[in-house]
Amino acid sequence: MRNNKKTPLSDHRSGLRKRLVLASACLLVFGGALLARLFFLQVLQHDNLYSQSEKQYLGSTKVYYGRGDILDRNLNPLATNIEVESVYINPNEIEDKRGTARLLASSLDLDPGKTLRKLSSSKQFIWIKRKCDLKETEKLKRLGLPGVSFVSEQKRFYPKRELAAHILGFVGLDNQGLSGAEHYHHDILKGASSLILMEKDARGRQIHLEDGADWRKARSYDVVLTIDEVVQFIAEFHLKSQVRKYDAKGGMAVVMDPFTGEIYAMVNAPLYNPNNYSAYPSQRWKNPIVSGMFEPGSVFKPVLASAAIDAGAAAPSDIFFCENGSFKVGKVSIGEAANHKFGWMTLTDIISKSSNIGVIKVGQKLGERPFHDYMKKFGFGGKLNVDLPGEAKGKLRDLSQWSNISLASVSFGQEISVTPLQMAAAYSAIANGGNLVRPRVTKAIARDGKTVKTFKPEQINRVMSETTSRLMVDILKNTVKNGTGRNAAVPGFDAAGKTGTAQKLDPNPLTYSKTGYLSSFIGFVPADSPKLAILVMIDEPQGIHYGGEVAAPVFREIARETLRYLNVPSGEERVLILDRV
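RE: above sequence
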């Protein structure tokens, strides 16, 4: 008979087998879980985890390079790039933070407190100063400060300093065009960008710098302007001189081709240096020739005369009674400038002598609706779509908003706001046979010295007939020869144009100032075959404020020197040339 009684040894063996089975099962489960986890991490989460690890051991920042040049019409550089260095730090590598902050601040002309706060950051990459001067980085490199590093960048550089600043504009630290042509053509000029990669060890210390920027391959498109740097310099010199002479608030000048709309010069005084634009008040950066709105005053009278002649409402020889210096419109008494007392005058003399009452009489004969329609044809109350940012429309009120004295006021340049560029375009239309052309500062787009796109003259509309244009040229020639524009006469050439002395509006209370004037002269030369249309405005001159005394001489000097530079023959020289032929 078999004895089935369990022994201690058999019990021990049975327990051992159970424990082995349990341990094997646990190992199997653990191994399966480990394999599943490895599959999840190595396969399913590979890209995500790799990206996170890269972030832990790679730092990066973006730098910009290769911005296109801006050139004048003769391909002289007005805006280009220079290679500079920027300074950055890894605070984790800097032990003596106070001492390093002090040395950085003194070397780079920075605020010590702000610099110390940057060094106290927990980040691994912080800019200390971008696009430093060569002397700054040389001094700093000699110090050999731990945790302080350098990277090459390109800095925008304007080699002619203040020249054409309001046309060119400027760019920010990150290569963004912020003003002028730099802003308007940013997408063409912007160049390229590159990531600077910085490898870091487990403690966040930088161990390698990889610069992916290739300055040589980053050539962008260049913008060729219609500006001529010589004409720009001439206009700037004479405008600034007159602003200083009369202690004026500022001044504006435009020189353009009346047939093509190409602008040779555009000046706002005071100027600023775009290499250091932040050192100037932001108001200085604005371009009021494009964005400013003014009541034009008497320079607007030829617009009325052109409309009246073209509509058949008046002829240059028609006479009007100018009321001996005082005329009542509604309840408002209107007089003449400088207390003149004019009697009977032809339309030609009304413009030449700048009679307020005379143009009111002409405006009344023309009528509100025709006058309003002609002003719109001249481009007033709307944009000319010039290729610069911030263009204003001006303000031409709808006829439904006119009062019983609005026709009279607008006739001599009040109750209407215009931009100086609109006025320059209007006089160009008178000069060129009656066509309103779009003013522009861009001539072409180029790359590697080759033109890839050119911009052609663009006619907006026909404002007046050629006959009207010729009659208005004669009237404006007479204004220079025998009227208020005598100081605009250019030796050797017939000039045509009109003076203006506009009272400025005081905003509080809203009344016309008795001391603030905008003194103007706008004209063209040679009168019968115009090469240049020139606008000059002096803002709040002190002492003398009449346009014929303050602005006309600037027109004369700009015209005289520019015609000589462009080799335009004078009247006597043309006679000699014809005699030889």
